[in-house]
From TrEMBL:
Keywords for the protein's UniProt record, in alphabetical order: Metal-binding, Zinc
Upper classification of the organism: Bacteria, Pseudomonadati, Bacteroidota, Chitinophagia, Chitinophagales
Binding site for Zn(2+): H11, H151, C155
InterPro entries (UniProt xref): Adenine_glyco, DNA-3mA_glycosylase, DNA_glycosylase
Record's protein name: DNA-3-methyladenine glycosylase I
Record bears the keyword Heme: no
Amino acid sequence: MEPGNVHIHYHDYEYGFPIHDDNELFARLVLEINQAGLSWLTILKKKDHFYAAFDNFAIEKVARYTDKKIARLLEDEGIIRNRLKINAAIENAKRIRQIQQEAGSFQQWLQDHHLLTKEEWVKLFKKTFLFTGGEIVHSFLMSIGYLPGAHIPSCPVYKKILKEKPVWATSV
């Protein structure tokens, strides 16, 4: 897919739409973390490689990655080969497993905190996960429908997202 088409597809069918599957939520979090310091287009072009390299972001599998798997990831030119980001993905998978045991699911944990302000979300994420600063948390929550701003009301996608009942639109 051409770079522009990759971005258009993401804009029209993914960005701002609610996600309910824990593995997909984890995938989006990892992709947002990997975007830090880079353009989102770079991540979108590598998205399929990320899914392949990280076993489709199966939380259970990623949480069990060994040093051998980490070494392979560090050599994989299809992803961002940053040890801190790779380690964060693995540790965050472990933390999501803990959240799943306590809250039932990552999605439920997010839902349990849906009334937080952006600043409160950032504090919670920094306390709970690795490599999650203000921009990453804001981008992640906006991209999964927990914070508004992914699209403006005049954007045709805005109405499609409203039909999906994003958390930001239902908690006002």
